[in-house]
Structure of Dual specificity protein phosphatase:
Amino acid sequence: MLSHTSTLAGWPGYDTPSISNLRHLLWMNRRSTGPVDQVWPDLYIGDESTARDKAVLSNLGITHIVNAADGPHRIRTGASFYRDMSIKYCGVEAADHPDFDLSPFFYPTVEFIQTALCQKGKVLVHCAMGVSRSAALVLAFLMISEGLTLVEAIKAVRQHRDVCPNYGFLEQLRRLDMTLCQEKRRREEAPKPEV
C-alpha cells in the first residue's frame, strides 16, 4: 500500500530550483518505465496503450481517467470509449511542446482528481508515453492538493515511475511552486488571532 505524507520540512528555507537542477533531479538514477505505475495512493500514470486496454483498466480498478493528450490529432478515447465501464473521463487537449501552456489545466485537473479520490476512486492520468504531459498534471496535483513542493512531488513520483516533463512544463511547474510557497509563507507570517 502506498502512503505518502509531506512534512513540509524545508519550506521555510526552500527555494524553487532552477530548470537545470530540476532536469538533473529528473535524470539521475533513471530506470526503465512500464506502461503504467501507481505513483500515489489510487493515482496512476500511464501511457496510451494502458488507456486503451479495458482489461488492464478493469484489473487496476480504474474509475476515473484524465487524458492529457485528448483531441482529434492525439489520443481519441473520450467518455464514449469508456461508456461500458462507467469510467468518468476528463480530457485535456495538450500538446507535448514547450510552448504549450498547460497551467490553465492544473486546477481543473486537480479538482477532478480530488473528487475521484474522495469518492474512493482510482485515477489514471495518461498521455502518449506517460512521461511529460500526464506527469506534469500529477506533479501539479501533488503540489496543490497534497502540499508538496515541486522537489518533493518529483521525488515522490520518481520512487515509482521515471517521468520527465518538457522544459516548458517544468517552467510552469516552477512558477506554480513559487506561487504556492509564497502563499504558504504569507499564511505562516500572518498574525495569529488572539484567543
